[in-house]
UniProtKB/TrEMBL annotation:
Signal peptide limits: 1-17
Pfam families listed in its UniProt record: PI-PLC_X
InterPro entries: PI-PLC_domain (IPR051057), PLC-like_Pdiesterase_TIM-brl (IPR017946)
Name the record gives this protein: PLC-like phosphodiesterase
Keyword Signal: yes
Domain of life of the organism encoding this protein: Eukaryota
GO molecular function: phosphoric diester hydrolase activity
Keyword Metal-binding annotated: no
GO terms, biological process: lipid metabolic process
Keywords: Signal
CDD domains, A to Z: PI-PLCc_At5g67130_like
Amino acid sequence: MRVNLLLLATCMLPAWAADETETTNIKSLLTLDGTVTSLNDPQTRTGDYISYTSTRTLPTNHGGMVTGSAASLMGSESAVVTASASENATSTSDSMTVLTGGQTKLVGNNTVNATTSASGTPSPSPVVNTQPCNGWPEFCARNYTNITMVAAHNSPFVQKGSVAANQELDVEAQLNDGVRMLQFQTHITNNTVYLCHTSCDLLNAGTLEDYLTIVTKWMRAHPYDVVTFLIGNYDYAAPGNFTGIIEKTGLMDLVYTPPKVPMAMHDWPTLSSMILSGKRAVMFLDYQANQTAYPWLMDEFSHMWETPFSPTDPSFPCTVQRPPGLNPHDINQRMYMANHNLNLNLDVANINLLIPNTALLNVTNGVEGAGSLGAMAENCTTKWNRPPNFLLVDYYNYGSFNGSVFEVAAQMNNVTYDRKCCGAASAGSSVRPQSLGALMMVVAGILMSMG
Ligand SMILES: *[C@@H]1O[C@H](CO)[C@@H](O)[C@H](O)[C@H]1NC(C)=O
Ligand SMILES: *[C@@H]1O[C@H](CO)[C@@H](O)[C@H](O)[C@H]1NC(C)=O
Ligand SMILES: *[C@@H]1O[C@H](CO)[C@@H](O)[C@H](O)[C@H]1NC(C)=O
Ligand SMILES: *[C@@H]1O[C@H](CO)[C@@H](O)[C@H](O)[C@H]1NC(C)=O
Ligand SMILES: *[C@@H]1O[C@H](CO)[C@@H](O)[C@H](O)[C@H]1NC(C)=O
Ligand SMILES: *[C@@H]1O[C@H](CO)[C@@H](O)[C@H](O)[C@H]1NC(C)=O
Ligand SMILES: *[C@@H]1O[C@H](CO)[C@@H](O)[C@H](O)[C@H]1NC(C)=O
Ligand SMILES: *[C@@H]1O[C@H](CO)[C@@H](O)[C@H](O)[C@H]1NC(C)=O
Ligand SMILES: *[C@@H]1O[C@H](CO)[C@@H](O)[C@H](O)[C@H]1NC(C)=O
Ligand SMILES: *[C@@H]1O[C@H](CO)[C@@H](O)[C@H](O)[C@H]1NC(C)=O
Ligand SMILES: *[C@@H]1O[C@H](CO)[C@@H](O)[C@H](O)[C@H]1NC(C)=O
Ligand SMILES: *[C@@H]1O[C@H](CO)[C@@H](O)[C@H](O)[C@H]1NC(C)=O
């Protein structure tokens, strides 16, 4: 009986999957070694959660050469500080004006060359900063935790026609368009860290090293941007598996090391402080972080909590799912991520695969209306009295208009979005996920009705 069902399922597949590799991949998942492979989306799994009873202050303030109450733009005694934030002098033409608190002293370094103007004499009146940080001048003075950022769910999983893909545009386009958190899943196969979706047979987006090399290059070319990485440790591997790669790609030069473990909401510095220090790659690992060994590879769940993943419920309740059992004080003291990727549950025999519901992106990634990202962000803000820090989305470039996810973030941030989106270079040539989504709905329907 079960054999028949699987045969049927594999027979149905070529009809809808235009891509032969895809068909083969799905087939191999269904009939691998003649048995059924059970798949679970890793982000619905749980692991060990770290809970700290006290906060540890790290001996060295590696987080930045900026001392004092750096880059607080408030108050009339602000001094004007000009800094040429040159990453190894690769972009010396770029210069920025940052306002810092009265007595703040910036210490120059080969990473960041900062000099106080007029020998540090406080300026009589505050000067308005015009250099954008993460896209807006207003953000320079804000704490890292006081900004809503768009996060690309499974950022590397860009593969035309694949049901397991989560994005249409690659990581460079994502960053150019304004995504500031990159989330992805890692798998260790043949001693190499790959970026795979659930299984390397289903979707393999290459090595972590290649991916981070691209991102590092982008970050060096954009010295005023803070980028956050959320690494999904599918295999619950020891953190040493990632640290070597981060060093090898050169990203380590840019990695932010927190002054405390763990960092509470109010402990985080301003964007301009991070930018001036050159330490503007924020690294989180979902499971198995060890901040004793690697203080900079931060444990995700002692710094933020997440709403339910991967929702198949379009009302997107703004409840705390992970870490479980968080007390109200800790809920308040940590950042939070709104998971807003709507999935279809592809459920055949004992295979359970969640795939993006691309047919509904115009609603899901929209600014307003039931089920929209905008509505979830509003609901969350009402419930928790502050907006989400991260908005995790699939196919970020689709929505109620192209770039609507950034409009939602801009509204949360009280800034104006220019609506210039998305991925100018790749427009036109790609498969529309909507049509693929419609097909998947049909296939999912067929498969489910058989089960
Ligand atoms: C930047 O400088 C550091 C240390 O001097 C060096 O290790 C790194 O390779 C340099 N990066 C580039 C892109 O030149
Ligand atoms: C400059 O930065 C490097 C690496 O980030 C650090 O090792 C060095 O001590 C810094 N130099 C000064 C003068 O702070
Ligand atoms: C750093 O600033 C000093 C003093 O203004 C200047 O002489 C030097 O050329 C600057 N270095 C870089 C790499 O911008
Ligand atoms: C930033 O902080 C202000 C003041 O507490 C608050 O009104 C605003 O909602 C916060 N914005 C974000 C995006 O956290
Ligand atoms: C791992 O090695 C095996 C045997 O050489 C090979 O068949 C497989 O494709 C490799 N896996 C990946 C993800 O490269
Ligand atoms: C990678 O993870 C495995 C499993 O936790 C561990 O045995 C191994 O030592 C790790 N490798 C490195 C380089 O840390
Ligand atoms: C921003 O961080 C500073 C310390 O770095 C803290 O004093 C301030 O309260 C924070 N602001 C907000 C809105 O959390
Ligand atoms: C974390 O790292 C420290 C220092 O390297 C080590 O002593 C400790 O055993 C590690 N903890 C775990 C759970 O592996
Ligand atoms: C979303 O797209 C579907 C199918 O194209 C359409 O029926 C629906 O009205 C759209 N919804 C919105 C809110 O634009
Ligand atoms: C937001 O709240 C409204 C009113 O309670 C509810 O109808 C809706 O389902 C919620 N979520 C979303 C994403 O619209
Ligand atoms: C967004 O852009 C794509 C082209 O990249 C286009 O096919 C699509 O219809 C656009 N509109 C929306 C609402 O996402
Ligand atoms: C939003 O920004 C405007 C200026 O652009 C300001 O007047 C207003 O007070 C801000 N609102 C909040 C809630 O911060």
